[in-house]
From TrEMBL:
This is NAD(P)H:quinone oxidoreductase. The keyword Oxidoreductase applies. Its EC number is 1.6.5.2. It comes from Streptomyces sindenensis. The lineage of its organism: Bacteria, Bacillati, Actinomycetota, Actinomycetes, Kitasatosporales. Pfam families: FMN_red (PF03358). InterPro entries: Flavodoxin/NO_synth, Flavoprotein-like_sf, Flavoprotein_WrbA-like, FMN_Rdtase-like_dom.
Length: 207
C-alpha cells in the first residue's frame, strides 16, 4: 500500500470562523486518505485586545490544544492549506509573520513542488475574499509551489461561487459556518489530496 500523502492545514483565527473551517478541512483531508497536521499561527495581539472581545478570548481557549505551526510542518507536508481571515484585503499579520520565517527553507528549495491552497473569511460578501486569497497565492509563486484551487470543478462551486478557495461571510461573528461553507471545504480538501497524491507519485516515478 502506498504511503499516504501529508497535508498540513495551517491557519490563523481570531474569533473562531477560520478555526472551524480549518478543522473541517483537516477532517476532510483525512477522510480522503491523507495524514494531516492541523496547526495554528502564533497569536501576536496583546492580551488586552483579546480580552476585549469575548469571542476572541473564547477561541483562544478552545484552540489552545492545537499546536503552533513550525517550519518543520511545511517540510513534512506534501500539501499545505493556508487559512486566514481578511485584513483589509490581505492576510493577517499572524500568518504573514510565520511566512516571513521561511526564508531558509525557500532558499534551500524545500518549499517548492508542493501543493498549496487557501481559504478565508470576511465580514461582508465584498470584504476582500478574492484579494486576500490572491495575496496569499503571490507567496506561493515565490515558493515554486503548485496552486490547487477549487475552481468550478464541482457543481456545488456554482452555489458558493468562489473559485479561488473556500470563503465564508461571518458578519460580525453572528453568521456561523454552515453547510455551504463546509461543502466547499470538503471539495477543496479532496482536490488538494488528489493532486498532492498524483504529483508525489509522478515525482517519485521520475527519480
Amino acid at each position: 500500500m502506498s504511503t499516504p500523502v501529508h497535508v498540513a492545514v495551517v491557519y490563523y483565527s481570531s474569533t473562531g470562523t477560520i478555526a472551524t473551517i480549518a478543522k473541517a478541512m483537516a477532517a476532510d483531508a483525512e477522510r480522503a486518505g491523507a495524514q494531516v497536521r492541523l496547526r495554528r499561527a502564533a497569536e501576536l495581539a496583546p492580551q488586552a485586545a483579546i480580552d476585549s472581545n469575548p469571542a476572541w478570548a473564547e477561541n483562544v481557549k478552545a484552540t489552545a490544544d492545537i499546536p503552533e505551526v513550525s517550519p518543520d510542518d511545511l517540510v513534512w507536508a506534501d500539501a499545505v492549506i493556508f487559512g486566514t481571515p481578511t485584513r483589509y484585503g490581505n492576510v493577517t499579520a499572524q500568518l504573514k509573520q510565520f511566512l516571513d520565517t521561511l526564508g531558509g527553507l525557500w532558499q534551500s528549495g524545500q518549499l517548492a513542488d508542493k501543493v498549496y491552497s487557501g481559504f478565508t473569511s470576511t465580514a461582508t460578501a465584498h470584504g476582500g475574499q478574492e484579494s486576500t486569497l490572491l495575496a496569499l497565492y503571490n507567496t506561493i509563486h515565490h515558493f515554486g509551489g503548485i496552486l490547487v484551487t477549487p475552481g468550478y470543478t464541482d457543481p456545488t462551486k456554482f452555489v458558493d461561487g468562489n473559485p479561488y478557495g473556500t470563503s465564508h461571510v461571518s458578519g460580525q461573528g453572528d453568521l456561523p459556518v454552515g453547510d455551504q461553507t463546509l461543502t466547499a471545504a470538503r471539495v477543496q480538501a479532496e482536490r488538494v489530496v488528489k493532486f498532492a497524491r498524483a504529483i508525489r507519485a509522478g515525482l517519485a516515478a521520475e527519480s
